[in-house]
């Protein structure tokens, strides 16, 4: 390729006025999630508006806990809130898992089929899942948290229960991703958003083995593993059977390249960089592209923040699109 491809995590969302228009006509986030025609429409919006090189299906990582039997509400301006949480072995035994759970997510598969029609092969469609540890964190904690100390407490106090839950989540994710692929997604990204709050020891025991199992099971399409904050386990991630590793903004691209060997790297401009003026966005983006060199997918170091000026986002995307590798 003459330049790296570019897309943004959370590109289908509140940065776009056309997303906010649809969203404000609905009762809430979950209505959008459960309405395939609208989910497909907002998935394609950033392709039309920003001319990014990939679409990511509009959905959420929390569809997995929900199909396993844990219902949640998305509280406006606060985030997810679960009605029950996992505290005991009995709680895990009451969960549904694997194929039966995954098949309940037909509304996601329908959104994928509709999106593929709307995209008409203009760009590939990315499917995704939360990683097992990140999903356990929500299922045990019951909401977002700065520390996820209740979820971490489980790892220290009852590792056996944690592994039992991680196994059930992993089986469900694999069945779910296979169905997503069957319905048309071209690649998969695994979001381990809370990787960075674990110690290397906890990460290598409770997170990495389950990610590795998923990577091994998904051999139909390329897989991107994004373990935010887990620079300390980059060498472990580099051993997984995935094609690409996400890089957050705290990681030096040279460090990532060395640890990741020949894997494709994705990232890593600080989302807050897009609050700056155009000239600065251009020069910092070019500097980032130069540091990564070939074998790179341009993205931010995490999801784009909802209050980012649309112009800043466009400057970023256009800078990548106008870039040329020096040969
Ligand atoms: O464009 C895309 O990236 C696709 C859609 C997408 C959403 N969520 C839509 C969404 C993806 C890939 C996700 C993943 C997701 N969801 C993650 C992993 C990625 C990350 O950010 O680390 C996590 C941790 C969640 C859980 C979640 N969903 C939270 C904590 C929240 C509330 C916080 C917030 O941003 O408001 C959500 C809601 C959510 N998911 C929104 C969107 C566009 C906001 C919805 C709205 O109010 O309209």
Brief descriptors of the model:
327 residues, alpha/beta, TIM Barrel, seven-stranded parallel β-sheet, two-stranded antiparallel sheet, 15 helices, 9 strands, globular, binds coproporphyrinogen III
How would you describe this structure to a colleague?
With 327 residues, the chain is of the alpha/beta class. The protein has one domain: TIM Barrel. 48% of the residues lie in helices and 13% in strands. It contains 15 helices and nine strands. The protein has a seven-stranded parallel sheet. Strands 2-3 form a two-stranded antiparallel ribbon. Strand 7, helix 13 and strand 8 form a beta-alpha-beta unit. Coproporphyrinogen III binds next to strand 3. The site of coproporphyrinogen III has 22 residues, from strand 3.
Distance between termini? 11 Å
Characterize the largest beta sheet: strand count, sense, and whether it forms a barrel: 7 strands, parallel
Percent of sequence in beta strands: 5-15%
Number of E-state strands? 9
**In what order do the strands lie side by side in the largest sheet?**
1-4-5-6-7-8-9
Shape by Cα distribution: globular
Ions, cofactors and other ligands present here are: coproporphyrinogen III
- What is the H/E order? HHHEHEEHHHEHHHEHEHEHEHEH
Radius of gyration: 19 Å
CATH fold field value: TIM Barrel
Compute the number of structural domains: 1
**Number of helices, where a helix is a run of at least 4 consecutive DSSP H or I residues:** 15
CATH classification, class level: Alpha Beta
Average of the residue pLDDT scores: 97
Low-confidence segments: none
Helix content: 40-55%
Corresponding CATH architecture: Alpha-Beta Barrel
Supply the helix-strand structural class. Answer: alpha/beta
